[in-house]
Amino acid sequence: MNYLFIYFDSPSNDKIINKFKKLKCNVTDIYFKDIKQDNLKELTICDALILGPDRPINLTTLNDLPKKLDIVANLYNLYKNKKVLGICFGCQLLGVLNKCVVDKLDTPLLKVKIKTNLSKKYKISKNIKKDIFQYNNKRAIVKPHKNVSVLAKNEHGIMGIKIKGKKHYGLQFHPEQSGLQGFEIFENFVNLK
Length: 193
Description:
The protein is α/β, with parallel strands linked by helices.
């Protein structure tokens, strides 16, 4: 399996790449500012797209999408029939690209592990027994669009989404920092057919 990892400015990038490599995935990583319109097509040769975490950015709706992220939106559209996973900011970006609303959390979740209700009806969450996940975010999806299902939530709000009819998942938490259950989520994502 070949995965394209779009990374932003996060210290977690190497951990995510290493987790997928442990699962025998070939990972091509590219910094979002290095994506060019003329090389979008060659970036679609991968089997799946991963949108990585970032430092906090004020993104609420599609109208707020900074110009620098337009190219990522264009790339996402080319992956509409493939697997997509958004992690932390990548989840927010995935939500905004699918008409969800993102806003500040009442209580920022900074380097904390929190019990999260993870829906077991989706293949990505299959057989996940432990439901404590690592968070490091100040924003989350507060209003999903009708084409988006809630995959996970806790007392702070929506913490995971699935785009209906697609293999597109967003996780507000950090699986790469959440121990075995985080690794199992990555494994389930890799095994999606």
